Amino acid sequence: MLVQREEQLTLLRETFQNCERQRKGHVSLVTGAVGSGKTSVLESFGDWAATAGGRVLSATASRTERGLHLGVLGQLLQGPRFDPDTGIRVERLLRDSPAASPEAGRDGGEDPADQVWAPVLHGLFSTLLDLAESEPLVLTVDDVHHADPASLHCLLYVARRLRHIPIMVVLAEARTLRPSHPHFRAELFSQPHFTRITLPPLTVEAIARLVDDDVEPAAREAAERCLRMTGGNPLLTRALIEERPRSATDEEPTADAALGDAFDQAVLGCLYRHEPGVRRVAQAMAVLDRPGGPADLLGHLLDVVPESVTPMVSMLRTTGLLDQDRLRHPRIRRSILADMSVDERRGLHQRAAEVLHEHGVEPGDVAEHLVAAGWAEAGWTVPVLHDAAAQALAAGRPDVAAGCLRLVGRAEVDDDQRVAITAMQVSARWQINPLAVNGQLDQLVDAARSGGWPTHAALSAVPYLLWQGRAEEVEEAITGCAGDDEQAHAAGRRRMMHLLLGLSHPEHLAAVREAAAAPRTALLAGGSSPAQALGLVGAALTPTGDHDTVAAADHLLHRHHADDGMLPLLTAPLLALLWAGRADRVAAWTAVLLERPAARHAPIWRAVLRALRAEAALRLGDLTVAEQQARTALDDLPVAAWGVAAAGPLATLIACATESGRHAEADRWLAQSVPAGAFRTPLGLHYLAARARHHLALGRAHAATTDLRRCGELMRAWGVDVAGLVPWRLELARVQLAVGNKAHATQLLQEQLRAPHGVDDRTRGRALRLLAGTAAPDHRRKLLSEAVNLLQGCGDRLELVRALGDTGQTLQRAGDSAQARLLVRRAYQLAQDCGASVLAQRLVRREPGGVPAGPPAEAPEPEDGLSEAERRVAALAAQGHTNRQISSKLFITVSTVEQHLTRVYRKLDVKRRSDLPARLVAFAEPLGEEIQPAAS
């Protein structure tokens, strides 16, 4: 473990050898920061010297034994085995030595004690001479800065007389704020046979050797991370490496990583070996946790002269605990804080809040210490905490805001302040756990009602009341806060809340049509972001074709996706994209937003984003991702906390289970309690449609029809009859086809296709596929061809599987069995990729006139050539098509294309795509035309 100390050990060994050869003594002082490995160097050198023919006497000084008279010298001389006479003489000298000694290396002057000490020093020195007579003598003293004055006096006496004596004295000391025994050091440094050896911090190369004997790139990367955390301090470095398993060396520990006791103890070991003042500064820095120029703040915090803090900070920096003026790693900070008592931490946090407030620091930074101290007794603390909470909410940190507001709640405030604080508490706590705000929300509503519905209090409660389905109370609040003297800002906010009521509970939408027009105008004119967001949802639910909802939603997301405080706002354009038929954009944007810090700190928005991503994945036919995201959304937020929005993730899970053939699981999701108010919201329509699909899968056509008719009645009554929300006519047509009512199904599908607005490509492709089942054979292939193109373009792989399967069945009946098998094979693979194994098996089940039973298998591979699938992929690649284009044309995944090409290159012995045409001449005839499965 002694790496990067070879140079120092070599110097000590050469010095020993010179002492032995030249019969001359020497003094070496090994210095370094706390934890730099001084003890290891002394022990290693002592072991080597003992094997090299020397006699080694060792001692270790200690702070607690500094007052022990001749304590260090006693350790040196009590170790060796003397003959009886010498042992008695040494014991007598140590016992009879004067209790007081002249200070080692004092400046001039005759001291009466010199005469008393003279025989003792001479006797002890004579004993050392006897020991060095037969072999070189090595005296090592560790932590000499803690040695007692009498022992130092004796050591200095020996050091002055080493010119022609083979005695080597090796001392080790740590850097301290003020050099201990300055007179001893001054005289020691002046000796002609003196050498000072310094131990520097470990380098990356040295740490890499500790991580792994072979300095590989991975070991160097781990060493660089280790260096950033330890500053090259050997004590910290060894503790860190020993605790981290080899398999985990590629990850740098985070602030929350539990490294174990060894690293904690190493940090504390560094601190406790310093002076108490240095440890106190480290504790203050751990509490403050602020970069840049800490001396002034630390001085005020510790109530000491700021100039006295500077050398302590420098000492911590030398030890490796600091990087510039801040603790090097959060894990070090946590170790220091854990060592402090609760009262110590609270006291320092309170003092830190006072000092930072006096220095004009931002409210958020001051509030952090107030919350940690649990103190808000001073008059200035309430406005600071209030401002900090507002800033935290705007920055997407409801957890921080909740902590500030919890502390404000204990302070004495007036009624108006209490209402404002309660409104902010509801907002903050709701984003963490909606179930935690029920009582406070009721208090806020009661206070607003009794106070005549003041605008701020009334409108603050609106989003949370809507979440719980309390639409009537929202309408009462919005109506109650309207007034003739209403300011423009308040009036605009009231109109926006009125629109929010209409969009979340569309039965009220007719009453706010006029208000709904304002955000749409604002959207076109570049109005405020909240107005644009609500306008986008309104445009998706009530499309008019006068502007591009998808482009506007993308623009809003691009503008604000990096702003954590805008995350709640961005759910609106995501909903607009979903209901406008762009599930692919929703999937892409939710993946981006889930990586934002605000999603980690606000469980409500993290859950909502995952629910949106799940529904988007379902519409794209990815059952695996849809189910995983919806389940995780309910893990983030239990069903009871979702309020009326619970219908959203539950509908996705019911649909996933139904599509996967897990009907018992779908029943369990249906057994989850959904508030009755959910069926007054657009998400309730999703739930009805999913439940209808489940009923149909179980053969309950009447129940499915009831749910879908109710869905259609609500959508028409609300004026939001758009397919992107729920294509209820299409779903009802599926039920009619299942019971053999083709005429009614055809009528419903044609109505769906004739809708003036809101029929997206996915809905159109699904409708055409179903309509093909009612058409004559000659027209069926044309409808299926168009359906395949639309579904492939919109990305719904599950519906594409059905369209390909129908196309294959149509070709089979027309006598084109080869092409039918090829299409079914592609559909089967795509279904497996989607996680729809039940649908995949249904594709290959034997039916009258259907394709052969059993999973589609590749045609046998010729002994000297390519399989059928490989030939087709190779031909398209030779014609210049990209992998993605080949995937699209053959209805297989890009990964499958890559696998086929890898085998093609190996079999044909080619290195690049440009070599394929020449090698495929033999296959030119069968590969001359690309397959057009849906051609008329």
UniProtKB/TrEMBL annotation:
Region (Disordered): 847-868
Domain HTH luxR-type: 859-924
UniProt KW Heme keyword: no
InterPro entries: AAA_16, P-loop_NTPase, Sig_transdc_resp-reg_C-effctor, Tscrpt_reg_LuxR_C, WH-like_DNA-bd_sf
Record keywords, A-Z: ATP-binding, Nucleotide-binding
A single Gene Ontology CC term: cytoplasm
Gene3D superfamilies to which the protein is assigned, alphabetical: Winged helix-like DNA-binding domain superfamily/Winged helix DNA-binding domain
Any one Gene Ontology molecular-function term assigned to this protein's record: ATP binding
Source species of the chain: Micromonospora robiginosa
Pfam families, sorted: AAA_16, GerE
SUPFAM superfamilies cross-referenced by the UniProt entry: C-terminal effector domain of the bipartite response regulators, P-loop containing nucleoside triphosphate hydrolases
CDD domains xrefs: LuxR_C_like
Matches recorded under PROSITE patterns: HTH_LUXR_1, HTH_LUXR_2
Superkingdom of source: Bacteria
Name of the protein this chain belongs to: AAA family ATPase
GO biological process, one term: regulation of DNA-templated transcription
